[in-house]
Give the backbone structure.
Amino acid sequence: MTFWTEMLGGRIEYIQGDQYRTRCLHTGSGDEPPLILIHGIGGHAETYIKNMVGLADRLDDRSIYAVDLIGHGYSDAPTDIDYTISDYQDHIEDLIHALGYESAHVSGESLGGWITCRLGIDRPELVESIGLNTMAGLGASVQDHVSEEIREKQDEETQDLYDRTMSMLEESFPHDGVRRRCDWLFVDEPPEEIVDVRHQIYQREEVQEVMPQIYHLVLADATEDPFISTDELSSIDVPTQLIHSTYNPGAKTDMIEYVADLIPNNEYELFEHSAHWPQYEEAEKFNRVTATFINNL
């Protein structure tokens, strides 16, 4: 199916908050706190294109919003911020309040998982629950608990992502460069429509202006950003869903299983047929387990 058919019954909305204007894919309706879905670095709301209608069919009396983070997609791209994890937290807080809620269920993938986890740690009053999907941002105290062989493999795959990304930036976002970057996300070839959408977004002047800064901060210069420690994971006091995949490049299942042991109130789901985007490659399972997790709270 095309993105158009995947989203039939849904809509695209622009939500104006006190700080930022946010582009969202929106499905569902109701009075219960919504589910907000956050993509990874360099991504966009279409990360969740296969989940929007399926989740709305399973979640009662609540809306689902997949967002473009600031600096990404068609949301605001301010030039006077650093795009730290705290800045992204401010964005999600602004969005939740603009939607008319005090809190929401928040689920994030990769960088989105890092942001989501920090919300659960730093601003727990904003989150009804958190979903951590192939999350990034795990600090040295977590990584030290896996073998040197696994750490070396993780470092090698993260370096590969960095090299693909820097090549794409240096060549001014060519279509082939975007495809090579997207290839890191999937077990099989990246869907052409994903590549086309991302390439089109990267042609926007506003995105080109801030994207190098965004990538450099997270992939190269994030030493001062708030990586997540073992003590912080153990302190999480909101219901947590942890999703990981067998073929995820970067963080391996051994490390995420250790994370699952640390978080007090969590449900851990391993997806066995996907890489960095289980919500896309195993969409039906993602929709089912995510809806079940929220409905059972």
The chain has one domain: 3-146+227-295.
